[in-house]
Design goal:
This protein is an alpha/beta fold. About 35% of the residues lie in helices and about 10% in strands. It has 19 helices and 13 strands.
Length: about 575
């Protein structure tokens, strides 16, 4: 999962490079796109062959340019060569025939940009039904998402049974007065999460027929009554595939575009489609995944809210992996209350996931009393000194101070993240075959990374127009289990030092960042992080204020972010998608 526009590559990752390069790029803060489960940039020309694609694993482990955000440029591919609007809509057009433009306009004020509690209140009052809500989102997707002047390419497939399922929710709610707030809400999923009724592809043509059972986390959502609307596009293989391709591109889904600047602003990655779809009001909320920035990056780039939970809070079983060490799923929504509701529906102990935590929180729900228990009075946050040059960051700090928060300026601890890429290489080399053996459709004749590489070479122009340099890096990495253990230990120690030293020295409750600037450190520390819109740069590009805390402090992150959100109210809808 990787990150966002080229101008902000986070400076600390350049500590892995020579000091002169660090000084040269420091003022640009072209932040690292370590949103690795979701956002690697990949570029090998469409003439790519099977040779000379990538440096050795040892070289690439200290050169992070392959996973950094690139300068925005013209796309080599825009629309999918494998999925058309007709393919997506054939199974649903007949069921949508009774939903007209008049119906859409009548419901617009009830649905557009409304949070989940408001939508539920409309259903309760009889102004709205779950069927109407579902058709409203479907109508918007069909009208604007593909093959037109506003297309965003954010949805890769739709649940063919969604309308029938929504009708069933309308009937069942009559006898379920205490339903979870996620009940009946149409949710989009990043297309690396196994779900019945739609293939799970990671955006790759090699997995286009990978029809599976539900991942554990999807069972959790469905058990609480959530509706799975469809699958969202993503940076192919969660952006750990190409090496120099744009965020949001996959061979199956095409190029996802940012609604705040279509073909202008980067979408962030790799949960690009999830964040774009939420921003464009194509769903009530969405699920993304992150290895190191892949929720934080696209959420901030598309002016929505996203949380990367503590590793182990949410099951990873049935999610196409990059790294069992760092991967997690997480919610993306238009408001803090929405992600609190979805997070609450998602978490739970999974015996099949060795990192899963059987945790009990003081309050029953993440969203319980969030509007009451959100005082920032006396809360102490660390603000990284280099980020204070950003006027939006300074304004956000002022908003927190106006609510009683205490802000302490802190220096960034001088630690590096050695062999970060090799951790991903070695984890994925063993984790992907495990997924294919235990969670994929047996008819898919792909078993490991080498099989995918060979499959792609057969039609390189269409299947891998930007190449597959990072996959070749995985294949060529010869690191052993002992070396991997050392990498993990060093990275986790360094990541925790980066946050824990200022937290301990200044007795901080949390730390404040921008977008995914510190996502790499949060990833290896296995700490939770949440980003919430903090406004727009002079050129109109969205930015997010990111809260980082120690493990199992999701409830605190949500209450802090909710208080800031209400004090600042910075989010605006993308003007062409109102």
């Amino acid at each position: 999962m990787i990150a966002s526009p080229a101008k902000h590559f986070y400076n600390l990752f350049f500590k892995l490079i020579e000091q002169k390069i660090l000084k040269c790029f420091y003022n640009f803060r072209i932040f690292l796109v370590l949103g690795l489960l979701l956002s690697w940039s990949c570029k090998e020309t469409s003439k790519v062959t099977d040779s000379n694609e990538t440096p050795s694993a040892q070289e690439s482990s200290s050169d992070l340019s392959a996973i950094a955000t690139k300068e925005f440029r013209e796309f080599e591919v825009l629309d999918s060569r494998f999925v058309s609007r007709l393919d997506i809509w054939t199974s649903l057009n007949a069921s949508m025939s009774d939903f007209t433009e008049d119906d859409y306009n009548r419901l617009k004020s009830l649905v557009l940009d409304q949070d989940i509690p408001t939508l539920q209140s409309h259903v309760k009052s009889g102004k709205l039904s779950y069927e109407q809500l579902t058709k409203f989102y479907l109508y918007r997707i069909r009208a604007t998402d593909r093959e037109n002047d506003l297309s965003l390419n954010s949805v890769i497939s739709l649940n063919p049974n969604i309308i029938t399922e929504a009708k069933a929710k309308d009937e069942a709610i009559k006898n379920n007065k205490n339903a979870h707030l996620i009940y009946g809400m149409p949710i989009l999923l990043k297309d690396n999460i196994n779900t019945i009724g739609m293939p799970t592809t990671a955006g790759s043509v090699a997995l286009k027929d990978n029809r599976t059972s539900d991942a554990f986390v999807i069972k959790q959502i469905k058990n609480q009554g959530g509706l799975i609307l469809g699958k969202a596009n993503l940076s192919e293989w969660a952006y750990f595939f190409c090496g120099n391709c744009p965020s949001g591109y996959s061979a199956l889904g095409g190029q996802t575009l940012n609604p705040y600047g279509r073909k202008i602003f980067d979408t962030g990655g790799s949960s690009s489609g999830s964040a774009v779809a939420v921003a464009a009001n194509f769903c009530a909320a969405a699920v993304g995944s992150e290895t190191a920035g892949s929720i934080l990056s696209p959420a901030s780039q598309n002016s929505v809210v996203g949380i990367k939970p503590t590793i182990g809070l949410i099951s990873r079983s049935g999610i196409i992996p990059i790294s069992e060490t760092l991967d997690t799923a997480g919610p993306i929504g238009r408001s803090v209350i929405d992600i609190a509701i979805l997070l609450d529906a998602m978490y739970g102990f999974d015996r099949a996931d060795k990192k899963s935590m059987n945790v009990q929180f003081q309050s029953k729900h993440f969203y319980t009393n969030i509007k009451k228990d959100n005082s920032l009075e006396g809360k102490k946050f660390g603000a990284f000194k280099p980020l204070l040059e950003d006027p939006l960051y300074k304004d956000a700090i002022s908003a927190l101070e106006s609510k009683g928060a205490i802000i302490v300026q802190v220096d960034e601890i001088d630690v590096s993240l050695p062999h970060f890429i090799r951790l991903l290489n070695l984890d994925m080399k063993k984790n992907f075959p495990s997924y294919m053996a235990n969670h994929a459709n047996p008819s898919v004749k792909i078993s490991n990374i080498d099989d995918v590489i060979a499959f792609n070479i057969q039609d390189s122009v269409n299947v891998m127009p930007y190449g597959q340099a990072l996959f070749r890096g995985i294949s060529e990495d010869k690191g052993n289990a002992q070396f991997l253990r050392r990498i993990k230990d060093t990275l986790k120690t360094n990541g925790r030092r980066f946050f824990d030293e200022p937290i301990k020295e200044f007795k901080l409750d949390g730390l404040l960042s921008i977008n995914n600037y510190h996502a790499g450190f949060a990833a290896v520390a296995e700490y939770p992080a949440l980003t919430v819109p903090m406004g727009y740069a002079e050129n109109g590009a969205p930015k997010g204020l990111t809260f980082i805390a120690q493990p199992k402090q999701e409830k605190q992150l949500l209450t802090w972010a909710y208080s800031y959100e209400q004090a600042s109210k910075k989010r605006e809808s993308p003007k062409n998608y109102k």
